[in-house]
Design a protein that fits this description.
The protein has one helix spanning 67-74, and strands at 7-11, 17-24, 28-34, 37-43, 52-58, 62-63, 86-96, 101-110, 113-128, 134-145, 164-178. An 8-stranded antiparallel β-barrel has the order 1-4-5-7-8-9-10-11. The chain is globular and about 50 Å long. With 179 residues, it is mainly β. A hairpin with a 5-residue loop joins β9 (113-128) and β10 (134-145). The chain contains 1 helix and 11 strands.
Length: 179
């Protein structure tokens, strides 16, 4: 029986985006992203169906386009950068749903709390760039509840609505480079 060698891939940060959206005042979305992140994938299957994934993002790199809001998000009210400088994800499994669609399961750790999450993955394909490097692309989405991670800061408007919703939408565009 032949043992398949696992290829190592790394996230190409210049061609990837780690974004989130949260409802503000229940009427609009505020978007943000992490500017510094890294991740690796080990896989022997051409379609990444056996992928083992590790990912981390630097909380200090959170960017919503508003420095005051970013500083509030880094404070103990939310991410508590001093005590929890990174958020991490480690996969526990990949299941194929369709030709290029998967469910990615794993443990997301934020603010010192680890919870299992399931994310939808669309595999965009694999190709060689003009310099001969092998690249693979993915669109990843999901939802988490911030209160599951003890991100419980809240304020209420005059009419009783929440300033920040509990549900956070995750949207990742990831390009991997074969190492």
């Amino acid at each position: 029986m032949e043992t398949l060698t696992k290829s190592k891939w790394a996230i190409d940060p210049a061609h990837s985006e780690i974004q989130f959206k949260v409802k503000h005042l229940v009427i609009s979305n505020v978007s943000g992203k992490f500017d510094k992140f890294e991740g690796t994938v080990l896989s022997s299957a051409d379609d990444f169906s056996d992928a083992e994934i590790q990912f981390s993002a630097d909380v200090d790199s959170i960017n919503t386009g508003q420095p005051d809001r970013d500083n509030h998000l880094k404070s103990p009210d939310f991410f508590d950068l001093t005590n929890y400088p990174k958020l991490t994800f480690v996969s526990t499994g990949v299941s194929k749903k369709g030709d290029d669609e998967y469910t990615l399961s794993g443990n997301l750790t934020m603010h010192g709390v680890t919870k299992e999450v399931k994310l939808s993955v669309e595999y965009g394909g694999t190709t060689k760039d003009p310099w001969g490097n092998t690249k693979a692309g993915f669109e990843i989405s999901g939802k988490i509840n911030r209160k599951d991670y003890n991100l419980t800061w809240s304020a209420v408007t005059e009419t009783g609505g929440l300033v920040v919703s509990d549900e956070i939408k995750l949207q990742l565009a990831v390009e991997l480079a074969k190492q």
